[in-house]
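Thread title: Can someone regenerate the structure for this chain?

I was given the following input by a collaborator and told the matching structure tokens would be attached. They weren't. Posting the sequence so someone can regenerate them.
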Amino acid sequence: MSDRHFAFWPKGQPRSMSVPATSLFYNAEVSAARYPDKPYLVFYDTTVSFAEFRDEAERLAGFLQQECGVKKGDRVLLFMQNSPQYAIGYYGILRADAVVVPVNPMNLANELRHYVKDSGATVALVAQELSAQMQPLLEEGLKHILVAAYSDYLKVPTDLNVPAFVAAPRQAIQQVGVSLWSDALALNLRPGPATAGPDDLCVMPYTSGTTGQPKGCMHSHRTAMHTLIAGEYWFNMKPDTVRLAVLPFFHVTGMQGSMSGPLYTGASVVLLPRWDRDAAARLIQRYKVGAWTAIPTMVVDFLANPHLPDYDLSSIQRMSGGGAAMPEAVAQKLADMGITYVEGYGLSETIAPSHINPPDRAKKQCLGIPLYDVDSRVVDTDFRELPPGEAGEVVTCGPQVFLGYWNNPQATEAAFVTIDGKRFFRTGDIARIDEDGYFFMVDRAKRMINASGYKVWPAEVEALLYGHPAIQEACVIGARDAHRGETVKAVVVLKEASRGNVSEQDVIGWSRANMAAYKAPRIVEFVEALPKSATGKILWRALQEKEP
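Best answer:
Regenerated them for you:
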């Protein structure tokens, strides 16, 4: 790493960080021993202490091993909203020496099929309101589904607005291969000795890209440990700094910064399964929340609440996030409230941040500087490092970089390059570095749409659109959107027999029924033909450049 990256290094922070040579579950054991009665999770005023959390994760691990046949290294799907069961499920899978496969709860059965088949998972932990999407896959590789009702963790009265899907009572299930979460814990089974070490696989978030189907990013306990601790160290987080968790745990930012990081430190986490600006404000006041990680669209909505002055938000010491640049006016509004919004940058392949702004010297709309022990560079097409001010691809080498893509050696080889004898991950992002060593995003080399912080990969949406019986060809591009920043647009050529019989709205409706809502095209344009190269390749960039 260049010396310029250290010019604004946070005061009092070491430049290197020692990562414990343990599994992530050991963090749960330590915090349970240190703070047994302290709340780890707060869910609509119901608390789960650190000791209770460890106990329930171990009971779940026992069920996975003894009743589901989960063995070391097996992949287990985790398909839920933020909830006590999500965190317990995550660490229960780890205690069973297995690998967590977190799945976006917005995915539908057609999309889930790929996760099951590609990961080879035979067991899935699923929320009750999502179980209908997973159950058809029992005949296609899955052998056991464990269904959790969020309402099992509504144990005390609350004046908070509880969404209907959270309050829904537990439903009885009579289907072979499907068990209830509550029944599984009631068996009080205990797992065998923990054998997972730092270099065993820990979690496998899926990411898409230019080739369409999502790919599993293999992370070990060691790579995951790095970023969950790095965030705690960087912001000097303390056990008594209460966190608000509104970013989804299936995404690496929420997973590391709002679930696993606080567990390591011994901090309490106030959970929201779905964004609710009034509930967020009330919870900040009630629990004196000190730290909150949020994407810009959440912050914009939060600050637009006309009732915001009615709440005491003075406890907030730190706000951070990423996914998209924070608008200048919104950052200033936070600053006027005495809050500096600290932006960072990371990918599924780096399991959350590889770069964060120094908290005391943060720059706006900036990716930040490389974290502890991370060597990031901006390089040209020949992988030569560029001087400050010149734009090139960001390549990153660090302890948190993933091991490779699951069962995809070709994609893994293409994702890395060796420079000066070191293995760098090619992010595909185009950035520049200023004279102070801060990184600024310029563009993306990969096709990607950023809709309200959700990454939408056009090739994946196109692959799903080809399942529509009337679509002959499709090209997906980004369109400007006042609220989402970008939204998904599909340029479609219909089969001749369907022309005049299928409308744009028909395609939009079909998309919503067959893919996650954030991926589904909100704009559809019919054309006679798509622009193509001499080799027949669809020229998506030509369509994107025509988009105003």
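DSSP finds 16 helices and 28 strands in the chain.
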